[in-house]
Amino acid sequence: MNDVPARPKRRTRGAARLLLGGACALAITVSSMALTTFARADLSGPPGTTLKAAAERSGRYFGAAMGSDRLTDSGFLTIASREFDMMTAVNEMKPDATEPNAGQFDFRRGDAIYNWANERGMRFRGHTLAWHGQQPRFWGSLSGSALRAAMISHINGVMAHYKGKFAYWDVVNEAYAENGSRRSSNLQATGNDWIEVAFRTARAADPSVKLCYNDYNIENWTYAKTQGVYNLIKDFKARGVPVDCVGLQTHFTGGSSLPGNFQQTLSSFAALGVDVALTEADVTNASTSQYQGLTQACMNVPRCVGITTWGIRDSDSWRGSENPLLFDRNSNPKAAYTAVLNALNAASTTVPGTPPTTAPPTTAPPTTAPPTTAPPTTAPPTTAPPTTAPPTTAPPGACSGTYRMVNSWNGGFQGEVTVANNGSATLSGWTVRLTLAGGQTIANVWSGINTGTSGTVSVRNADYNGSLGANASTTFGFLVNGSSTTAPSGLSCTSP
Q1: Catalytic annotation on 280?
Q2: Ranges for the CBM2 domain (predicted)?
Q3: Is 174 a residue of the active site?
Q4: Residue 370 banded pLDDT, cuts 50, 70, 90
């Protein structure tokens, strides 16, 4: 077994992958609210006779990916309804599909898949919001702050449409290279903070969904790419960036087989405080031992919440010539199906209750009200050093605010204010007041709580950055919509 994975063949946009169906002639209204709930673990019951029933015994799910063309495929739909309780759209929710033109969204094909799944009590995984592939065509002419703004706008638009309906969203997909560094892409060229911006934007857009980073070739614990992604998640969790889960695509090929340390990889990510999931599983020739092994590894890690196969039958697969799925072209289950079913039923761990990161961590900024645009990249919120005596409240006027423009584009800008304690006593809170130019409105604020969105606006500290020691400082940021980039005036800072 080759433990160091070679890069598998990537999924293409062409016909070899779960094929895209034609656009629906009529708009499809997405169901107003998801009716599904997460499974409740009960290992004392009888073994499950379907994949979903077996997975649900331990509080997990077993999912599949489908394209809108499969909505008229009775063989596919029969198996999907019987065996699976989580669904992912193959291409229909990717950026090029959902926003073909700037500011013009098309959710018809995505809605069709979601509605079908939701009507059958399935949960749903959104895939994907920010990716170097399958981007809207108009992104190709953008760069820098304009592309960053387009990414933010796209995330807000798509997540607003599906708000409260999904269990998981793959916020960022495949952002790392094989050597463990960031992948070179137009999104990476907008600044190294683009992944953080995407996650903070997503959390602001929908506080209820779990936000995931998704990638391939991160199954081997000692592989450089795995370590690169691990360090990203570790940093995000330490700084309170809202990431809830890591998706391991689990495409196992002849040169990229199940690594012997796969369970260690899952456990190591989970130890950071995130869920892990196998999100696009397929295995060359449906190897029974590899399918059994990947399932068992997930069952042994409490925060491994579920497994999704990328398609159902070999005829659905983007790797169809390798016959990599659990059902053959005639819809018959293979030996690998039985191996997976048995491994699911043999689970000895259950999934703990893990809500999305909406409450503040004890040592990092909270994620309840993050930005719909780029967060500050210069420094995380600053807190006062521990003290053995109650802090002294600083007199009014001891704080000051300094504004700088971070980014601007046609139709808006991103601003940042540094709040500094100029006194010798600890501040117990602060409030900044500023006045926006005519026609400007605040779209969102992070690391602070605003009152008002136009004219004179006040921003007070968040729960985690109000206490500032002598000579300490913190920052808050905001996004302004408007035709001008005129800087706010009348900036003042007061402390109670």
Answers
A1: yes
A2: 392-496
A3: yes
A4: very low
